[in-house]
Amino acid sequence: MSGTACVCQEIECREIEIDYNQLDKIIRDDYGGNKETMIMMMQAIQRVYRFLPEAALKYLSQVIDVPLTKIYEVATFYASFSLEPKGKHILTICTGTACHLRGSGGMVRHIAERMGIEPGKTTQDLKLTLETVNCVGACAVAPVAVMDEKYYPKATIATLNDFMDRLDAE
Amino acid sequence: MRVLNIILNGKAVTAREGQTILELAQENGVFIPTLCHSPALEPAAMCRLCTVQVIEGGRAKFVTACNFPLRRDAEIRTDSPEVRHGRKLIIELLMARCPSSPELQRLAVEYEADLTRFSSLNDDCVVCGLCTRACEAVTGKTLSLAGRGTAIHVSTAFAKISDFCIGCGACVQICPVQKISMEDVDGERHILLHGKIVSQVKLPRCKSCGKYFGPVIDLEKVMDRMGEHLIPPPNADTCPECSRHNLAVKLGKRYFEQYGVFREEGQADAG
User: Fold this and answer.
1) Distance in Å, alpha carbon of A110 to nearest chain B alpha carbon
2) How many angstroms separate the first and last alpha carbons of chain A?
3) What is the value of pTM for the model shown?
4) Chain A residues in contact with B141 (beta carbon < 8 A)
5) B226 exposed, middle or buried (CB, 10 Å; 0-12, 13-18, 19+)?
6) For testing the chain B interface, which of A69, A72, A84, A134 should be mutated: the one with the most B CBs within 10 Å?
7) Percent of chain A as helix, strand, coil, to the nearest 5
8) Which of A42-46, A84-88, B57-61, B246-250 has the highest mean pLDDT?
9) Which of B146, B158, B164 shows the shortest C-beta gap to A67?
10) Which of A9, A53, A161, B94 is deepest in the core (most CB within 10 A)?
């Protein structure tokens, strides 16, 4: 693993390059620049940066004339929005009742240990974000792991190890 | 407007359609405890203390009185054993979060709340949202609620010192538990949330007496509303005290020049 990107908690370190032309395209062209479509704009911004950069939200606030603090309120309300940089790959492990009974807790602990991150956090090299979810609605095929939006039924530690090996090889 | 027949705690009263239960109760002298209500702001039903029982068409349900608009004839119970039981739990939860609120302490005694039931957070913010709603009513640019569920808290954007605060102090004035404070230090007004500075607003210095005063709240916007767009607000650089003094001197001088003499008020115009 070669970690170059900085994910330390200092705000200054989190500054990243923002392409304002691209932002303008998202806000004005794709969504018409109306405040009613703010959440969709935020989702589009998150798709570009894999999180919501402060500078991008500031710009959004100015363009659609919504106070920054309101945007912050929305960004912190929905679990799908992240104000912290997320990894290139996102591994979500279901910890709902059925998955829990079929050992998803052990899978979470295994990945946390192997990658050295707490659930909900991202590795230093921004390769992987480990998340847990309360239920993905596929209890019949528990335990369920979701890797980059692809669902893996009846997942095992071996399945997950395959992912991690591939990740390490990248 | 349709008039509704409501039975409020066993007494027949009339209500206007769309009126909230809390308004009706206040009109009829029935007390419902509230923490997050202000008649000047939109109800938010954050504290849940005003929960009452409504029986509409034979079905009973619990609703928050502050934001429940009456649409049908109904029976309302604001102090039944069921309501008191539910309210006791709400008080216990709120007391665990904010034990120092005098209003809550009073209610805890009245409802015989069990204060050992939930472990105390000592957060001292009831998350009533009054400050955020007051801020929204004034400028809407500084305070908002962040997070959700048990992690919900009052915050500025990105928990940083706000660039948009005008230092009006509405949040300080409305906070029911005095967790927001304000102090003027060296020409700056600081707003403190839980003791942490969340805004620093530069105060203007009076050109007459040299004292810091203010803040000058959005005078440009006031001028805009008066149709005087882009005209600098008059006397914006003088403190209210000096403004009054200067005006009195100016008027007095003109009066003296006109009549040659100062007259006591009420004295006959002898000529």
Assistant:
1) 27
2) 9
3) 0.79
4) 67-69
5) exposed
6) A69
7) 50, 10, 40
8) A42-46
9) B164
10) B94
Closest Cβ opposite residue B141 in set A54, A67, A83: A67
Distance of alpha carbon B223 from alpha carbon B229, whole angstroms? 6
Q: Which amino acid is at B78?
A: T
Q: In angstroms, what separates the C-alpha of A76 from chain B's closest C-alpha?
A: 5
Asked whether B50 and B37 are in contact (CB, 8 A), the reply is yes
CATH architecture of B130-203: 2-Layer Sandwich (3.30)
Residues 6+ apart with CB under 8 A from B77: B9, B52, B53, B55, B83
Q: Confirm if B176 and B130 have CB atoms less than 8 A apart.
A: yes
Residue pLDDT, tens place only, B64-104? 999 999 999 999 999 999 999 999 999 999 999 888 888 88
Closest CA relative to residue A129, chosen from A139, A146, A117 = A117
B interface with A, Cβ–Cβ < 8 A, is 139-148, 155-158, 160, 162, 164
Residues of chain B neighbouring A67 (CB-CB closer than 8 A): 139-141, 144, 157, 164
Give Cα A9 to chain centroid, integer Å: 17
- On the 0-12 / 13-18 / 19+ scale of CB atoms within 10 A, B234 is exposed
Q: At a CB cut-off of 8 Å and minimum separation 6, what does B215 contact?
A: B166, B167, B168, B189, B201, B203, B204
Identity of the amino acid at B199: S
**Burial level of B181, CB count in 10 A (0-12/13-18/19+)?**
middle
Mutate which: B135, B139, B144, vs A, most A CBs within 10 A: B144
Q: Do B157 and A76 touch (CB under 8 A)?
A: no
Q: How far apart are CA B124 and CA A80, in angstroms?
A: 29
Strands A150-152 and A145-147: antiparallel
pLDDT of residue A3: 35
Q: Where are the domains of chain B?
A: 3-110, 130-203, 206-271
CATH of A89-169, one of 3.40.30.10, 2.60.40.1120, 3.40.190.120, 3.40.50.300: 3.40.30.10
> How crowded is residue B17: how many other Cβ atoms within 10 Å of its Cβ?
12
**CATH, range B3-110:** 3.10.20.740
Strands B74-77 and B144-146: unpaired
